[in-house]
C-alpha cells in the first residue's frame, strides 16, 4: 500500500527559517570568535590608549593625580615652542631626504637582483641583513665609521682628495644626513623585497612587445616597469612616509638629538616631554600633532593616487 | 612612538583606576610582624640595598624588608608606572634628585620630617620642599679627582696636593701628556654634562641654573675645550664615536687623571682585583677649584654630588608607617654608614670612624690626601629640587653636546640655551 502525500501539503517550510537563523547566528559567533582575540588586544592596547591620548592632550596630566582640563593650552604652547618647531622641521627634513633616497636605493637593488644571476639569493639576503640587525649594534658600528678623525669613511674621503671631510655626527650640519644614510642602509633591504614582489607582477609580454618595438632599457623601465609598479610604489611611499615621520630609535641611539638640537625629531621631543620631564599632557598634544601630520600626508597621498588612477 | 606613549598613558590610567580600589584594603597591625617592600636596581651588583635590609632586620626582628628590583636604566619610568597603578613599593629609593619634585607634587611621598637624622649628615636639604622633608639620604657620592701615581712618576710631574685650581689642573694635564710622550693622555673627561656643568654650578659664584642665566658655564667650557684642543685629553667627538668608558680610560692607564664621583672607588678596587683594570698605584685628590680661596688642605674644597635617599610611599598602610620611618632612621644612622663604608659605598654620614672603615677596604688608597678628599668637602647639590630642574637639565644637555662637539661656539650656545630656558621653562 502506497502512501501518498496530499498534493497541496507544504514541504516543511516552517522548519527552514529557524534553521537559517540558527546558521546565521552560528556563523556570526564563529566570526566573532575569530575577530575577538585580535580585537580585544587591539582595543585595549591601541584603540583605547589612542582615545585616552586625545583626551590627555587637553589636560596638564603629569602621571599622578587628576588630569586638569586646560582646553587648547597645550596646543597653543606647541605653536610657540621653539624646540617643537625645530623637531617638526627636523622631522620633515629627515623625511624629505630619507623617503626619496630609500625608494631610489631599494628600487635599484630590486632591479639589479631581479635578474637571474649567479649568487642572486646571497645578494638578496645580504641586502636584507641590515633590516634584521640590532639597532644598537648598527649605531655603535656606524658611529665608529663616522668618526671624524679616525673613521674609515673620512679616511677614504681624505684619500680621494677631500682635505676637510664632514664632521658627520659631530657636526650640526652633517648629523642629519649621516642619520639618513644609516637609516636608508638599514631599510633598503625591506623595501627591496616589496619592490621585488612588485616586479614579479610586471607582465613579461609587455617587455617583449616594447623590445620588439625597439624600446631600450631605460625606455622600458620608464614606460613599462614603473607604470606597472605603481601599486607597489604607492604602498612603499605611504609606509615609508609614516615610518619616516615617526623615526625615533635610530636617532636615540646614534645622536640623542644632538649635537645641540640638530637631530631632534618629533618622536624624541614627545619622549623627552613625557618620560623625562613628566609633562604627559603636553607630550600627548605633541603626539596628536604628529598623528595629524601622518594622517594629513597619508590622505593627501591616497587622493593623489586616486586622481592618477582615474 | 606615538603608540608607545599612548599605550603607557592608557595602561597607567586604566591600571590606576582598577587598582586604586584594590589597595588600602590590607592593613597590618602595628604590633605584629611587618613586611616592607623597598625599591632597588641591579641588586646583584648593587649590594647596598641588601646590606641595609639585613642590618635593619637584625635590629628589628619583627620587620622583614623585601627588595623589589627594577631595571637600572628605566628605574624612574617603571617606578612611576607602578606608583600610578597603586602598586608601588612601601619605601621608595630616590635614585635621582631631579625626580623628587614630580613624586612630591604628585602626592606620592609621605612627610618624613619627624625622622631624626644624625648631625653632620649630608644631602638632606635636597629632599626638602617648602620646609618639609620627603626623603632621607643614606648615600652621598661627591666628585673628586682620581690620579694615577705611576703615570705621574713616569712623567716626572708632582702629584696633586689639594691646592689646584682648574688652571693648575690644565697645566698638570699638559705636563703629564708631554712627559708621557704619547703613551697616555694627561686627563680624561667623560661625555656627561655633569663633568663640566656640575663643577660650574657648584663652584662659580652666584651660579643658579633656575635663574635662566648660564653665563657661569663659559669659563669652564673654555678650559675644557682648551684641554682637548691642546691634546691633553681625548676630545669629545672621539670619545662619542668610540663610545669610550671612563673605567676603560683610567683603569687601563690611558689617562693619568679623571674627574669622577666617589662611586668609582669601589669599582676601581674591584676591577683591579678582577684584572679588568691594570694594577697601578692611584689616589684621589680634591676636585680642582674655581679660585684659590677654597684650595689647600686647611680649607674645604667645593664640589658637587646628589644624594641617594629613601622616601615613604604616601599610600603605605597605616600600620607600616612607623616601621618604614624606623628603616629611614636606620639607613641614615652611623651604624648603617659603617656597614655601607665597609662595602665601598660613600654614606651620607661621614665621620672619622666611617672614613677609617672605608679606607680599611683592601685595595683602597692609603695616603692622607685621599682620606682628606673623602672626608672634607662642601658638596653642593647637582640638581636643584625643583619641578623645572629636569626641563633645564634637558636644555643644558643639548648645549653641552653643541659646545663639546664644537659644532657651536660657546657664547652662541649659551645664549641659545638661555633663550630656550626662558621659552620652555617656568623660571624664577
**Low-confidence sequence ranges of chain B:** 5-29
Oligomeric state of shown chains: heterodimer
* Count of DSSP H/I helices of chain B: 17
**How many distinct folded domains of chain B?**
2
Largest sheet of chain B: 3 strands, antiparallel
Helix-strand makeup class of chain B:
alpha+beta
Global outline of chain B: globular
Radius of gyration of chain A: 28 Å
The CATH architecture of the largest domain in chain B comes to 3-Layer(aba) Sandwich
What proportion of the residues of chain A is helical, as a percent range? over 70%
Can you give the mean pLDDT of chain A? 89
Strand content of chain A: under 5%
Helix content of chain B: 40-55%
CATH topology of chain A: MetI-like fold
CATH topology of the largest domain in chain B: D-Maltodextrin-Binding Protein, domain 2
Overall geometry of chain A comes to: flat
- Main sheet summary of chain A: none
Topology, number of strands of chain A: 0
Structural commentary:
The complex is a heterodimer of chains A (310) and B (428). Chain A has a single domain (76-309), classed as MetI-like (MetI-like fold), CATH 1.10.3720.10. Mean pLDDT of chain A is 89; it is low at 1-6. Chain A is mainly α and 310 residues long. Helix content of chain A is 71%, strand content 0%. Chain B has 2 domains: 30-141 and 306-349, 3-Layer(aba) Sandwich (D-Maltodextrin-Binding Protein, domain 2); 143-302 and 383-424, D-Maltodextrin-Binding Protein, domain 2. Chain B contains 17 helices and 12 strands. Chain B has helices at residues 2-20, 48-59, 75-84, 100-105, 149-155, 166-180, 194-203, 217-229, 236-241, 246-251, 263-274, 321-332, 334-342, 352-359, 368-375, 389-404, 410-424, and strands at 34-41, 63-70, 91-94, 128-129, 132-133, 136-140, 143-148, 257-261, 282-285, 302-304, 307-312, 378-380. In chain B, the strands form 5 sheets. Chain B has a 3-stranded antiparallel beta sheet, with helices on one face. Chain B has a 3-stranded antiparallel beta sheet with strand order 8-7-9. In chain B, strand 4 (128-129) and strand 5 (132-133) form a beta hairpin. The longest helix of chain B is centred in the first third of the chain and has 19 residues, at 2-20. Chain B is globular. The model of chain B is unreliable at 5-29 (pLDDT under 50). Chains A and B meet through helix 1, helix 5, helix 12 and helix 13 of A and helix 1, helix 3, helix 4, helix 9 and helix 16 of B.
